[in-house]
Design goal:
CATH superfamily: Aldolase class I
Helix content: 40-55%
Number of domains: 1
CATH architecture: Alpha-Beta Barrel
Structural class: alpha/beta
Number of strands: 12
Number of helices: 15
Order of helices and strands: HHHEEEEHEHEHEHHHHHEHEHEHEHE
Shape: globular
Radius of gyration: 20 Å
Length: about 375
């Protein structure tokens, strides 16, 4: 039984501990996905269709896990994707995640739907930082968030491009999940039997969407589902022309998050993007779509010599990262892999999850006969 942080030895264990510690609606928001959740499952299962071919007798004692992505050298070939609503999962939220990323020398992201401000993270955290931009109908809000990122010296912006409408997240419909949480007879019982979470939520600083609160009340003061927020508040007219205009306004490293086709990856190059995150939003948008790892080789072959390709989604093990890096990804990223740990034990949980993944990578690199990330190539892989 997983009942304490010391019992967690992999991401699946953190998931079980998070389920014990969170009210049902909050846990299922992290854990759920769209429709039948087939894509969510496939995101991880895709790695199992590919096998590693190790090389022996390489005499490897030390391993270099560092890589460079979006102009930033990071100590690990993976980083913590920006995710929304983190102070719902643990009262420290983005602060805990950022400090853990800083300790391990890797990139950290915050979301437009984040619960700690751009300014606080920018001043408190020295590790490289990326901001996830959701383009709202309010053009002033979009411009203000970009300006705030410039002032706070963020290193990159990731424009999310796969949220033209919100996905059909049926678990949220069944549990009644909203931001901020709304009391219903069933949710009230779930909150009551998780008193530690409830007391932290009620007695600590007021929940807010820090980047949005001065522009929109939805999500901070008016309860709304994330799917409804996407469908009503975000700009459904967002197109390649506007994405290019945002890139020009930002002026720094610019990533498109949610690229799944080689043609779109080529267009990302055309508008001046310096990175793409191959991602299907964790299976939370279009169910039945391909997994990022399934699409990775096509996209690397199309644009890998022109920009940084990042594999985002479904990663639960160091071996998953080795496979993505062998295909040609410059780095890997994920959300649930650290959100479960955050919910389980705050900063200590995120640090333990990262330490376990790092240990897996070091061990697996030695077993593969690879001293550094550039030693990983498709020659090490076989597809079934």
């Amino acid at each position: 039984m997983v009942s304490a942080l010391k019992d967690c030895h992999n991401i699946a264990d953190f998931r079980l501990l998070a389920k014990r510690r969170l009210p049902g609606p909050i846990f299922h928001y992290i854990d759920g996905a769209a429709d039948d959740e087939a894509t969510y499952r496939r995101n991880t299962e895709a790695f199992e269709a590919c096998d590693l071919v190790p090389h022996v007798l390489q005499g490897i004692e030390e391993v270099d896990l560092s890589t460079t992505v979006m102009g930033q050298k990071i100590a690990l070939p993976f980083f913590l994707s920006p995710t929304a609503l983190q102070r719902l999962f643990h009262h420290e939220g983005e602060r805990a995640v950022a400090r853990a990323a800083e300790k391990f020398g890797t990139l950290f992201g915050i979301s437009s739907l984040g619960t700690v401000s751009i300014e606080e993270i920018g001043s408190a955290i020295s590790t490289p930082k990326i901001f996830q931009l959701y383009v709202h109908k309010d053009k002033g809000l979009n411009a203000q968030m970009i300006a705030r990122c410039k002032a706070a010296k963020f290193d990159a912006i990731a424009l999310t491009v796969d949220t033209a409408v919100g996905g059909n997240r049926e678990r949220d419909l069944r549990t009644g999940f909203t931001s901020p949480p709304r009391l219903t007879p069933s949710s009230a019982f779930s909150f009551a039997v998780h008193p530690s979470w409830a007391l932290n939520y009620l007695l600590r600083e007021k929940f807010e969407l820090s980047q949005l609160k001065d522009y929109v009340k939805e999500g901070s003061n008016i309860a709304v589902t994330v799917s409804d927020y996407f469908s009503t508040m975000l700009d459904q007219t967002l197109d390649w022309k506007e994405a290019e205009a945002i890139r020009r306004d930002w002026g720094g490293h610019f990533c498109l998050k949610g690229i799944m086709s080689p043609d779109d990856a080529r267009r990302a190059v055309d508008i001046g993007a310096t990175a793409v995150m191959v991602s299907n939003h964790g299976g939370r948008q279009l169910d039945g779509s391909r997994a990022p790892f399934d699409q990775l080789a096509e996209i690397v072959d199309a644009v890998g010599d022109k920009l940084d390709v990042i594999c985002d989604g479904g990663i639960r093990r160091g071996t998953h990262m080795l496979k993505a890096l062998s295909v040609g990804a410059k780095a890997c990223s994920g959300g649930r892999l650290y959100l479960y740990a955050l919910a389980a034990a705050g900063q200590a949980g995120v640090e333990r999850a990262m330490a376990l993944l790092k240990a897996e990578l070091v061990r697996d690199m030695k077993l593969m006969g690879a001293r550094k990330i550039s030693d990983l190539t498709r020659k090490n892989l076989r597809w079934r």
